[in-house]
Each structure stands twice: as structure tokens, then as C-alpha cells.
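Dear colleague,

As promised, here are the two records you asked about, laid out in our usual form so they can be pasted straight into your sheet.

NAME FIELD: protein one
SEQUENCE, THEN STRUCTURE:
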Amino acid sequence: MRRWINKTASAIPKFEKKEEIIERLNQLKPAAYLRKRFSLTSEVRFARVYICGLGYYELYLNGEKVGDHALDPGQTDYEKRALYVTYDVTAALRKGSNDCRRHIG
């Protein structure tokens, strides 16, 4: 039986001890978490969110995830262009207190 070897297999780090894996994981930085509370004095007739980031994000309004996208925006060369996504958030906003949260990373 022949064994197939990937040419890039040598680029994959090999860990011999569980402690080395844990140390590498501990060096990773967590995603940033941003939060903004705001109040509206009247009912919303129409609202949009335009969101752009150099990296991925998840957007939540009043505890509910906005949209059904995962790992947005798509990958691009950030020195040439930055992609954004538009969401209709009219139904997610309410008169009174509102809460907007973003996880970015």
C-alpha cells in the first residue's frame, strides 16, 4: 500500500506534548466585543445597518443575531477594497432601550 504525503505536510507544526498545544492556544488573542446601548423616542419606520470590517464579525440587535451570514465579509485584499454588508434592521429596533453588540476578529 502506498502512502500519500502532502508536499506542505512539513509546514504543519508537530506537537509532542499536550502542554505545547495549550501554550499555543493561550497565545491566541480573543475576538473583540463591542457594545452600544441607545434609546429611541419613537417607533422606527425604516432602519438599515451598513457594516464593514477588516476581518470577520457577527452583529446582534437586542439579543438577536442580525442576518444569516457566517464569516462576513468575504475575503479581499484590504489595501485595495473593503467589503460591506447592508441589513434591514427595522423589525429588530424598538421604541425605548436598544442594545447593539458586535463580535469582531
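NAME FIELD: protein two
SEQUENCE, THEN STRUCTURE:
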Amino acid sequence: MFSAPYSYSSATVDVGDEKGLHLEPELTDMFDEVRDYDKLKEAWVGWRDASGKKMKDLFAEFVELQNSAATAAGKYENVSGFSYFLRVITLAR
């Protein structure tokens, strides 16, 4: 599970002539400053493909583990798991 934050923070994207852009600070700055729709779309899709696809299976596994733990603790579903997952990713940045 700990590889998900790593995938999120270590993904790199090529946008136009700019190569190897990381989410922080390059892509975040681009999202704040650039107003070219096509460039922003290329950056977003590239980052999503580089990070999100790698985390998809890990997230499903995370939810299964959280629900198993919740069931073992006498709870039906662990609805707070998603917010926990997002906090882990945010702290990894």
C-alpha cells in the first residue's frame, strides 16, 4: 500500500517540449498559471496515466483490507478509509 503515495508523488509527465515534469512543483505551477486548455489537458491526462493507473489496483486492495479490518472490529464498512487514503497521499508530497 505504501507504494501508492510513491507512485503519486514520483510520476513524471512530458508536456510539449517540457520533459520529466513532477506534480510538485512543475505541474502544480502549470495548473495555477497556464490558461491554455490543450496544454492543461495534456498535463492532466499525462499525469493521470502516469500515476492513477498504477494506483488503481492498490486502491482496490486498500479498500478490501480496510473493510476486512472494519468487519473484524464489528463495523460493516469503513467509510473513512477513502479520506485516510487521501491524507496518506497528501502527506507523501
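A couple of things worth noting about protein two: Residues 3-92 form one domain. The chain has a mean pLDDT of 77.

Best,
R.
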